Automatic annotation (TrEMBL):
Gene giving rise to this polypeptide: der
PROSITE patterns (alphabetical): G_ENGA
Gene Ontology molecular function: GTP binding; ribosome binding
Phylogenetic placement of the source organism: Bacteria, Pseudomonadati, Pseudomonadota, Gammaproteobacteria, Chromatiales
Annotated positions binding GTP 2: 185-192, 232-236, 297-300
Functional summary from the UniProt entry: GTPase that plays an essential role in the late steps of ribosome biogenesis.
Chain residue ranges for the region called Disordered: 439-472
Any coiled-coil regions, as ranges: none
Organism: Guyparkeria halophila
Pfam families: KH_dom-like, MMR_HSR1
Name of the featured protein: GTPase Der
SUPFAM superfamilies: P-loop containing nucleoside triphosphate hydrolases
Any single GO BP term: ribosome biogenesis
Residues binding GTP 1: 9-16, 56-60, 118-121
């Protein structure tokens, strides 16, 4: 069983920086900005043969209203899950009243706590030692997380504090994260509410304020005995409205989450309809080749005439995404949410499907027989055979003659035909064409002029023999 460490402390003491050091990743956003982390962020760490689970949390401020209260609830939930708590304080700022308040709460929680004094680069440890000893939490561990100094000693202290049941030799655990599903969309469309509804718990912050989620939160879970990893992402707004540097980083993390996902659930707001930004996001998802499910949220609060108008708008504006299942849901009340994962499973299975060369070539022959490729300069484009070139998304490679001249409408016809015949719903398809090489290309014609003339005459005689006689 993996030991679980929760990193807690005031805002801007370096919890996310330490999280990245321990997990040897860049999963947590880091900036000189108080209150950047809001949700629980989980990460895997490995040290000297042992696997750990590290939880990054939002800063504890003592505020009991608004979003700050929800952030602190998330931090205390992380502490309940943890076997050890690393309590971070700022060595440069010194001991504060907020630190003393957090220390008192931690003592009441009854968890093993290691006091970690961060930002000690350029600070005399002996000067701050007496100050933090006053917290009564034992010998502090001094580190500089931004430079990686003291991380080895921190691991040793954490190992020494492990409960007895976790000090035994860890058993090998299968690392099956299942299908990775990313929830993306504009700010305030209900992604975090939908995440909590799918998980059946208040796992991430859901607050009526655009931009509540700032980082991409990965959450492993099981549904009907199948493993999944859900990624709740920050909302993506128009570039002209992206002001803070933090928001720019959040958008990058969202786009990275799309790349990391097997299936993307795009969440739309039924009240605002399909916006230009929604279409940009759809274009990016399609370009990256991700399997897709569309969830139109806040559907239950619409009048019947508005529903009809929104449905018409969806059909008109999302015509270029003809492979994705569309669900009309209410994340707040749970209406329609249960069917989302049916489409997720279907889309994933289609994206990862392996199809034999024989089956693809038969499908190509049937498509060509039903609708021939066009003539180019009097010559018919020949499509000979097809094979699979990859999955997620499925790539179908078609070999033939003059394939570079194949028009776009025939390309789309083939894509629709392959999708229908092999039930590839929920995923884009990539069709690539390969033009067969000319076996005589690059070879030198070594015939004499007389030989060329004789060959032309012979070809003319053969053509004349094949002509029908004139009717007199």
């Amino acid at each position: 069983m993996k030991p679980v460490i929760a990193l807690v402390g005031r805002p801007n003491v370096g919890k996310s920086t330490l999280f990245n050091q321990l997990t040897r990743s860049r999963d947590a956003l880091v900036a000189d900005y108080a209150g950047l982390t809001r949700d629980r962020q989980y990460g895997a760490a490995h040290h000297e043969g042992r696997d750990w689970l590290v939880i990054d949390t939002g800063g504890l401020t003592g505020e009991r209203g608004g979003i700050e209260a929800l952030m602190q609830d998330q931090a205390w939930l992380a502490m309940e899950e943890a076997d050890l708590v690393a309590f971070l304080v700022d060595g440069r700022a010194g001991l504060t009243a907020a630190d003393e308040q957090i220390a008192a709460e931690l003592r009441r929680a009854g968890k093993p706590v290691l006091l970690v004094v961060n930002k000690t680069d350029g600070v005399d440890e002996h000067e701050v030692q007496a100050e933090f000893w006053a917290l009564g939490m034992g010998e502090p561990e001094y580190i500089a997380a931004s430079h990686g100094r003291g991380i080895g000693g921190l691991w040793e202290r954490l190992e020494a504090m492990l409960p007895p049941e976790l000090t035994e030799e860890p058993a090998e655990e299968p690392e099956d994260q299942g299908i990775t599903v990313a929830l993306v969309g504009r700010p305030n469309v209900g992604k975090s509410t939908l995440t909590n509804r799918l998980l059946g718990e208040s796992r991430v912050l859901a607050f009526d304020e655009p931009g509540t989620t700032r980082d991409s939160i990965k959450i492993p879970f099981e549904r009907d005995g199948k493993p999944y990893t859900l990624i709740d992402t920050a909302g993506v707004r128009r570039k002209s409205r992206v002001g803070e540097a933090i928001e720019k980083f959040s958008i990058v993390k969202t786009l990275q989450a799309i790349d990391a996902a097997n299936v993307v659930i795009l969440v739309l707001d039924a009240h605002t309809g399909i916006t230009e930004q929604d279409q940009h996001l759809l274009g990016f998802i399609n370009e990256r080749g991700r399997a897709l499910v569309i969830a139109v949220n806040k559907w239950d609060g619409l009048e019947s005439d508005v529903r009809e108008r929104v449905s018409t708008e969806i059909e008109r504006k999302l015509g270029f995404i003809n492979y994705a299942e569309i669900h009309r849901i209410s994340a707040l009340h749970g209406t329609g949410v249960g069917h989302l994962f049916e489409s997720v499973d279907q889309a994933y299975e289609a994206a990862m499907r392996s199809i034999s060369t024989n089956a693809l070539t038969r499908t190509l022959s049937a498509a060509v027989e039903q609708h021939q490729p066009p003539l180019i300069h009097g010559r018919r484009i020949r499509l000979r055979y097809a094979h699979q070139g990859g999955s997620n998304p499925p790539i179908i490679v078609i070999h033939g003659k003059q394939t570079k001249r194949l028009p776009g409408h025939y390309h789309r016809y083939l894509e629709s035909y392959f999708r229908r015949e092999h039930d590839l719903m929920g995923t884009p398809i990539r069709i690539e064409f390969r033009t067969d090489s000319n076996p005589y290309e690059g070879k030198i014609d070594r015939r004499t002029p007389l030989q060329k003339v004789k060959q032309k005459k012979a070809e003319a005689r053969r053509r004349s023999k094949g002509r029908e006689p004139r009717k007199g």
